[in-house]
TrEMBL record:
It comes from the Bacteria. InterPro entries: NAD(P)-bd_dom_sf, SDR_fam. It comes from Chryseobacterium formosus. Keywords: Oxidoreductase. This is SDR family oxidoreductase. Pfam families: adh_short. Belongs to the short-chain dehydrogenases/reductases (SDR) family.
Amino acid sequence: MSKNNEYALVTGATSGIGFELAKLLANDGYNLVIVGRNQETLNKTAEELKSYGVKISIFNKNLFYQDDVYSLYAELKVNNISPSILINDAGQGFYGKFQQTDLNREIDIINLNITSVVILTKLFLKDRAGKGLGKVLNLASIASTAPGPWHSVYHGTKAFILSWSEAIREELKDSGITITALLPGPTSTDFFNKALMNDSNIMEDWENFSSAEEVAKDGYKAMMNGDDKIISGLKNKLTVAMSNLSTESMAAHRMGEMQKPSQED
C-alpha cells in the first residue's frame, strides 16, 4: 500500500542496485521518483514498479550536467513532491591508465559520481530542513577504501563520497536526518561493461560477485536503521580490513594487480 504522499528519490533506478533498492522502497509503500537518461527505459521501469501499487514519477535527466540536476529539484517543487528519502545510486567508472584515458570522459564521471550527488543532497537537505525527518543513502564502494590503479578516477570519486558522507552525517546528528554510505564490492551488474573493464583480472571472479539484490538489501536495512555505513558481504569486509592494515602503496599495488588487464599477467 502507498504511504500516501511519502516519496523516495532514486537515481540509477533503472538497473542494478538502484532498481533493487527502488523495488524494496515500493514494497514498503513509498512512492518513487526515478531518474534516468533514457525515456524508454524509464517508462519500462515505471511499469514494473507500478505493480507494487505506488505512484511513480519519472524524470528524464542527464546527471552528467548540473543544469539537469537543478531542474530536477525545481520540477519536484512544481509537483509538490518533497522526498523523505534520497538514494544517490547513479555512478560510472572508466577503465585504463590515467595518462592514456580520455579526460572528457573522466570529467563526466566526476560530475556524475560527485557533483550531481553533492547538489542533490544539498537540495534535499534544504528541502527537509525543519521537517526533522529524512534519510540519505549514498553509494560509495569498497573502492573508496583503497587507491585503484587502472580505475583511479572512480576510486577517487568514491573515496570522496565516503569521507563527505561521514562528515555531513556528523553535522546532521541532531537533525533527525541520517546519512548512510553503502560500500559494495564487485557486483554482477552492467557496471564493469560500461566501464570497459571486461578484460580486467577482476572479471575472472565474476561468478563469485555479489548480486544486486543482496547488496540492495544490505544497504536498505542500514539506511532504515540510520547506520553510518555498511560494507556489503563478508569477503568485502575482509578486503577492507586488509586495506586498513596495509600502507597506501601496498594497498595500491594489491588493487593494481587485481584490476590490470589479464593479458598483462
